[in-house]
Amino acid sequence: MIERSKERPADERTWVPPMELDPARSTPVPVEENLAAGSAAERLPALLAEGKPGRGVGRWLFGALAALVLVALGFDTADLLQRSFATSLALGTLVAALVGVAGISAVALLIKELRSLRRLRRIEHLRGEADHLVVQAGQGEGDRFAGALSRLYEGRADLEPALARLKDFVTDAHDDAEVVRLIDREVLAVLDRRAYQTVLLAARDTAVVTALSPAAVVDLAVVLWRNLKLVRTIAGLYGARPGYIGSLRLLRRMLANLAVAGVTESAHHVAVEALGGSLVAAISTRVGQGVINGLLTARVGLTAMHLCRPVPFGPHNRPSLGKIRGELMSLPKQVL
Amino acid sequence: MRLPDLNDLTDVGSRLLERAGGVAGRILLERDVRLGVTGLRRSGKTVFTTAVVDNLLKAGRLPFLDVISSSRLQASRLQPQPDPDVPRFQYEEHMKALSGPPINPMGPHWPEPTRGISQLRLAIRYRPNSALKRVVQSSAILNLDIVDYPGEWLLDLPLLHQSFAEWSALTLEMAEREPRAALSVDWRGWLATVDPAGRAEEELVRQGARLYTAFLHACRNVDGLSLIQPGRFVEPGDFENAPLLTFCPLPGGQRGRGTLWALMEERYDAYRSVVVRRFFAEHFARLDRQVVLIDVLGALNAGSDAVGDMKRALELSLEPFRHGSAGWLDWLFGTKIDRVLFAATKADHIASSQHANLRRLLDDLVADARRAIRFEGAQVETMALAALKSTETVMADHDGRQLRCVRGIPVDRDRETVLYPGDIPEAQDVFTRPYSFMRFKPPPGAGTDARGLPHIRLDQALQFLLGDYLA
């Protein structure tokens, strides 16, 4: 033992012999409190970093113009107030009240947007952390992650049984990777099923509308509106509840994703899908277009699922276009 | 008037069809799987089997079992076992022993060591995942057969491939080395006085067997000696006092007829064919899945010799099993074990942060066996698990350092204690420091709730072993 301690002095200093300790002085393994939310704000998440507009002349121009408009608006409002008070006290009060309501609701809207952005950021942060936990498979961080996720889904009646189950299942013997896998299986699987149904419905809607619409403008509008709504629904399901700016940002990020990588299948796959339906397309270009639009909507939906999920999909539970494709291919039969 | 006739006919037809469908469905949708729970003595086979059965029956603590997490499990129940001549596994008795006061006034304790073979069949009714199977019948049944037996008997299996001369040489060589040398003094003293080529005297044979049995019993009472052969000498089962169990290893090679050596060899061969071969053929030859329970911590406690001894015993006893990938011709050539799980049991004796290191240690320990089985084509997995979780991981303060300890009630006490058993290092050399793992009683509340016994990773073990059957 002594010789060994000479070889490894540093190790020897930290070594503790096996022993029994006083039960009264032991404490449960602590669950570190909400670090996730705090550190999320400090670290700049990928979502925002990508969404930042370029620093250039354009940005200065835009900023200056916006400031000018704001100043002009302020002057006009002040002017309007003076004139209405000059006309009559009643009119003045009414206008002042209107200005007040407008101002307050603008501020409220801004706060709401900011909060929804923070939720998005929080989910983004959770995703990064889940990845980290699965790779590290350490000890003690998993509980904190489960806590952060439970807070994210606090007050959701539909998830209460799943969260309660999760609490029952997680023991002190699970390592972090196991805790994340449990969350994945018990809580997120529930959401996945519903999100997938939503995507399925939206894809069918777009396909039918495209196939039946009389003018291209109409279906362009409907497809855009349906996609935006789909993204918002899915983000809401996973707890992101994005505001307008948030969902636009999400949509933009998704478009980049769709264009560059293709999350579930490559663009070439969609083309093959479309050609596979060539018989249909030959019969009716409209129906063919409908199927393509439906598939594109489905891809938008699946991408949204990938981006909004607090734990990234693994290889075994990755949602696939397969079922949606089958559903869409049966569309010509329904329509014709 | 013809219409009702036609109706009757179609009715009979549809009923026939239904029955045919039922028969076809039974063939298609009722499957048997034999799970071989293998392990040396005191590796926790009985508790493992009890915990598996209890958890599958109550299904409240198995989140990692796919059939349960996707809520396709309908229910499980105990069924009459397939072999009527084997005693039934006393699941209820063992559960009672493990349970707390309302059920068991004596307080929870571990089941008595297993003395004989027993069997249990558990039928699991579930909804298949595949659409094709669901078309035939909405639910399917998996019959899970588990056999429990004394771990001592497992060490008989290597004898199947050894002749008396080979076995004698190996045993004698081992007996001359420490720690066995001190225990075998009497028997080796007797060996020195007899002439293997001399005439066979029954009294002489009995004396030798008695001394050898005493030596084996002494080995069993020392911590950390695993290789004790033949197993029936220490755990005779229903062969108590049979002449089959009166022989012992003798030095030297083949001798002529009528000699002591020839008589011993005759009995050894009879033991092999009557006891060992039958035991293997009836219970191990038809296994589909295998879990090898290894008490790594117990061996660590006893020291490096014990680990070496256990490793050797395990490798020897795994040899006779037929591993390989399952194929469609199996019904013709006999089944093969296509999934093997090596499990380090009693993982609750250490803090949960140590489980990864325990698993790594197990990986090192079974590396050779694992490679061999993989080569045959079977899937192999290793895990650190506890069939019954009897401790909790807590933090305790020691000289300003926070240590992860385990809290539980030791077997010989009534009060809880907090134990720091020593950390298992990540590196290969694990014997630089002493360990002090302690045996704990089953947890006070075990078996009293309707969720099943608390465990560590039993669900992941079951998912690996049975997951594809329950798909």
Q: Which helices and strands appear, and what pairs or packs with what?
A:
The complex is a heterodimer of chains A (336) and B (471).
Chain A: H1 2-7, H2 9-14, E1 19-21, E2 27-28, H3 35-42, H4 46-51, H5 57-87, H6 89-136, H7 141-152, H8 160-169, H9 176-212, H10 216-237, H11 244-260, H12 267-276, H13 278-283, H14 285-308, H15 322-329, H16 331-335
Chain B: H1 2-29, E1 30-39, H2 45-58, H3 66-69, E2 73-79, H4 91-98, E3 118-126, H5 131-136, E4 140-148, H6 164-175, H7 180-183, H8 185-193, H9 202-221, H10 231-234, H11 260-283, E5 289-294, H12 296-302, H13 304-318, H14 330-333, E6 339-344, H15 355-365, H16 367-376, E7 379-384, E8 392-398, E9 401-408, E10 417-420, H17 458-466
Parallel strand pairs in B: 1-4, 1-5, 5-6, 6-7
Antiparallel strand pairs in B: 2-3, 3-4, 8-9, 9-10
Q: Roughly what is the average pLDDT of chain A, rounded to an integer? A: 76
Order of helices and strands of chain A: HHEEHHHHHHHHHHHHHH
Biggest sheet architecture of chain B: 7 strands, mixed
Shape of chain B: globular
Which structural class should the secondary elements of chain A be placed in? mainly alpha
Based on CA atoms alone, the radius of gyration of chain B comes out at 26 Å
Poorly predicted tracts of residues of chain B: none
Give the oligomeric state of the chains in this entry, treating copies of one chain as homo and distinct chains as hetero.
heterodimer
**Structural class of the secondary structure composition of chain B?**
alpha/beta
Query: What count of helical segments of chain B does DSSP give?
Result: 17
Distance between the termini of chain B: 50 Å
Query: What pair of chains forms the biggest interface?
Result: A-B, 34 and 43 residues
Helix content of chain B: 40-55%
- Order of helix and strand elements from N to C terminus of chain B: HEHHEHEHEHHHHHHEHHHEHHEEEEH
Helix content of chain A: over 70%
Overall 3D geometry of chain A? flat
Main sheet: strands, sense, barrel of chain A: none
